[in-house]
Amino acid sequence: MAKRSHAHPHIQASSPSESKRDILRSAQRVLAILELIARTPGGLTVRAVSKLLQLNISTCYHSLNTLLTAGYVERLPSGHYVLGPQIPYLNDAYLRTLTHDWPATDPQESWQAVARVPAHRPSLSQRLRPILHSLSERSQEPAYLAGWRYGEVELQAIVEPAHAERIPGIYIGYRGQAHAHALGKVLLAYSSPAFVEDYLARHALIRLTQRTIVERTLLCEELHTIAHQGYSIDREELHADTACLAAPVRDAQGRVMAAIAISFRSDLLSRRGEWLIAQVLRAARQASAELRLSRPCEQC
Amino acid sequence: MAKRSHAHPHIQASSPSESKRDILRSAQRVLAILELIARTPGGLTVRAVSKLLQLNISTCYHSLNTLLTAGYVERLPSGHYVLGPQIPYLNDAYLRTLTHDWPATDPQESWQAVARVPAHRPSLSQRLRPILHSLSERSQEPAYLAGWRYGEVELQAIVEPAHAERIPGIYIGYRGQAHAHALGKVLLAYSSPAFVEDYLARHALIRLTQRTIVERTLLCEELHTIAHQGYSIDREELHADTACLAAPVRDAQGRVMAAIAISFRSDLLSRRGEWLIAQVLRAARQASAELRLSRPCEQC
DNA sequence: GATTGCGATTTCATTATTTGAAATACCGTC
DNA sequence: GACGGTATTTCAAATAATGAAATCGCAATC
After folding, report:
1. Model confidence over A207-239: pLDDT tens digits?
2. Hey, which end of chain A has fewer CB within 10 Å, N or C?
3. d(C-alpha B23, C-alpha B51), whole Å
4. Domain segments of chain B: what residues?
5. Nucleotides of D under 7 A from a protein CB
6. Which CATH architecture does the domain made up of B25-84 adopt?
């Protein structure tokens, strides 16, 4: 975007690393402080922020005041700043934007259609929640729904049973590491080769556990296998001790719109694997059936 | 905080309304833009932001770029900006801060103890989730958990059954309007008079429906009734057509630490009210029993 | 195939805003 | 009562944001 054209007539020397144009530096700093606080469970004092970010304490003081008055952080009586109530408020708004249906995956440009999708039609996650619910109920494991969003795999719904916990570090809105989980792999497996190409060009295959598939060729083989067998397995590829199973959800035209999954302790795979696969496939079939009827479809 | 002392020797005339000191204006503007986008389901273009906020288009352009590169917004191919993946990421961090136990309510200062509570003990919402789950299961209505946080009632857990939807506009992390819902009323009902006094001084009794209690004396009467009967009812006080029932959860010392509730279509109140009250009371009793055993208590 | 309209991007000088060092205030502890 | 660790305030320096206007790009229209 920024053209970084002929240097300013002004000074500009003093900025240490090549600082980006078109960015509001104090705003950027404030956001960086917010993220730092998010990463620190117990909160941070003004001074701590100043030290960690190598910023003048006065700058941090003003930045934190800005965040404070806007509700993005809160100040504990101890002087520690923690995330404030504006965060879940914005998240609620974000969740409502999941209330679109996305066109499937294919040529990287397909998601541009999103712009044309009218807001406020019943979302996939809303329509499929009962199915996730019963999947979670039957299996007594957490159930997940993911779809494409702006060229990324996005986790869009989680239904947890009373006792089992979701995979740590995973949350609604989580994107990425598609190569390392069952949902991502199954969605990629049913994408066009051109799209997979593009996806792999945009994403490094980061190693998350010893089992993560980090070889491009191995991953492509895996995707073929998945497309052939109709579901995907994550054997501790994302998180040690945890396995996932995922299966595709198709719309009336047969396009893969989403994927449904469950996660569970990986040692269950050998004992209950077959049964769990059957449950996931069943839920995915139900979901596809649900999408087949009464599509409030605009672009058909 | 800001002392607004003797006017600067500089100009300072040009700022129209009394602009606050100790605030980073460009950062504040960026946050305002973020909130504007959050309020707009379909997203906004640079120009639209500029018009709505009465800012120079160049300012908006730079602000949006800042938000964009930090992941707080995303740009659709149409040029519309919508909330980005950083929002749910921060929310996940916020949710983890719910992983404290809070001291109860009383004298407005009690929440200052939060600062001393070590992070990472099992949270109320984690411990009580199975109970909420079975409450939701039995009643087939959404179940809620709320507690005190920094002197405010905060919604801390929601368990939705397969088919019923939570109250719109309500989300985990939601605070306030305690006078208008069952959870808030029951928590206030078991707070000390001094605290209620303080709470009422800090919060106007905003009218949300025709039934909202906006008279201070009426609310106090209501709180007395609630404390006497052991549960609270919200009869369309927060949201038209929706009723809630809430009951207190006590710790081993008998202090009210939280409240459990369900919401449902208000017409069910006459038919199933008695039964639903029994369910909520039962869940609250179970929760209190759960808190009674094996408290990982630091300050006792 | 050129034109128009609409909006995004870039430019650049002006000027207000942010910065940073240091002084000061605060609070709990020894 | 002094000390150590922080938070807050001050104020001049100078950096960084602003705003008007020019430019660019795209798509619809003539």
Report:
1. 999 999 999 999 999 999 999 999 999 999 999
2. C
3. 23
4. 25-84, 98-292
5. 6-21
6. Orthogonal Bundle (1.10)
